[in-house]
Amino acid sequence: MAAKPGETLASEILNALAGSSSIQRTRNIVYVAAQGPLWGPGGDRGLYKTSDGGKTWKQILKISENTGVTDVVIDPQNPDTIYAASYQRRRHMFTLIDGGPESAIYKSTDAGATWNRLRAGLPTGDMGRIGLAISPVDSNVIYATIESGDRKGASFARTIGAAVGKAERL
Fold first, then answer.
1. Is residue 80 part of a domain?
2. Which of 87, 91, 151, 167 could serve as 38's disulfide partner, Cβ 3.0–4.6 Å?
3. How buried is 96 (Cβ within 10 angstroms: 0-12 exposed, 13-18 middle, 19+ buried)?
């Protein structure tokens, strides 16, 4: 899936991920969250975007060889605003690394050209898998279900204000 400029992978990607919650589509623009291989480093990890209905793909968010993107949501009021959840995970013969310091929530306000890691009000320790949703009533409210390293995972609602976001434990 790691597309080089001009490479066509549309049918392979969309067929493989059909029905997945990690695909978000707006007109000819499609975002695909890729976790990558469980049993090894590298592979296709991160957030990918096509602007031509799947003819070409570009990786727009890359964290590391052990961390992929597990969820992506688009603000219905402003499709240039995107939230992505990264998930650090690796499987070894007798253990599962299920989270770590690279699991996080990212926000872009320019359709994925640049990203900011959100930290305010979220767990400060290692996090695991994160699920995201945008309130259908108020797109300034982002919901996140977070596995926490202290085994006290929780759900959070983050209100994106003018300057500072506030996260509240639900």
1. yes
2. 91
3. exposed
